[in-house]
Request: fold
Amino acid sequence: MTVTLRINGSACRFHGDPMTPLVDVLRRERFLTGTKAVCREGFCGACTVEVDGEAVMSCLRPIGLLDGATVKSIEALAPGDTALHPLQAAFEAADVVQCGMCFPGMVMSLAPFLRENPDAGRNEIKAAMVGNICRCTGYERIVDAVMNFLDSQKMEQANG
Amino acid sequence: MFDSMERSLTVAGSIEEALAAKHRGAAVLAGGTWLMRDPRRGVNLPDVLVSLHALPALFTVEIEKDQVVIGASVTHAGLARQLAGLNGFDAVVAAANGAANPAIRRVATVGGNLCTFDFAAADLLPVFLAMNAVVELRSIGERQVLPIAEFLANRRVFLRDSILTSVILRRDVIASAHARLPLRRAGDYPVAIVSAVRGHDGRVRIAVGSVEDVARRWISLEAVLAIEPASVSADPERMRALAAQCVDFRGRDGIEADGWYRCQVLPTLVRRAIASLSAKESVQ
Reply:
């Protein structure tokens, strides 16, 4: 089966097994290894990417359902030598990244959520990241970092 | 690339095309969140599939005066979003909003939840049972509408030649509640689920999911309730005690919980569901 889609702004064509998980196309075909294949069961969230603006588990998305879709992986948030996405920068500033395996998924889950919920509180943030498991840090510091990010976004807006 | 280069996926442009593919032996692919884990379970993926994702009619939720018609391809997230605030439908929203995790809820469909034979912990099944839902099945040249309990009792037979296209819920409920016990919040399967609905006739209907292989109504508890004063069904503690006397489930053993434990927690889930139901009724 041939599937045409956009990945991080580039038109891509895939030819092969329609049930190939998107995560394998990203990592093996496009070498976008920021998306992590960990549990492959939709439990850990490490493979989260945006498909048509929504955060989904790429391990559970067969490529055959994505003809015409727009996919954004973690690499598109801060391509090349550009500055980190503010959410990534907030994680780095709060020193919450340890092994780093879960963080691309964390960022890809939270970025669209925060875009749509700029006034989210701690409980909403926790609910949004309930599908992203971290085995290093504990979650409170991650939520702290997200709150810092939201505060800085609001300050930026207030200052015009 | 990987796996089977010969595997074929038909993206159906009409329900007739989907039915024709199914008739030729294709497996129906909905959101794929269960099927994509087949390799992890040691099961080979089907070689021939047909997808329903290009059929817009299956993605709609029609809220009519007397009923709600839910297309089979509506996702859990879409269902929760579209029914939010609809009087009496809180349990449906809670079930759709509580299943798995946010990313899966954006993809997993109503039809997939109802048609996956091996998925005992499906959240929508008990709530649809308690709501007295009916399902619409399409086969070549035929449309069939039947109660969900009848469908669930014989899913393998019904789905041999048919595709589930919609779920229909009557708007004849006063209030509903959904109580589930997960081991943790992060997207695992619930140990047990209790859905409770009070109909306009004042009767409470209760259904249980994840305890046995297939969700079912708790008929013995409902029968006891039918001969008790109406006030009993609004008293969470008395309902918990009644439920404890009526546990007639054979709990399934699983890696996340033993069967006896699933049965053991049911009275407490009934209490929680009834407390939630009573709170909603008092607000109304």
Remarks:
- Residues 174-282 of chain B form a domain with the Enolase-like; domain 1 fold (CATH 3.30.390.50).
- The mean pLDDT of chain B is 94.
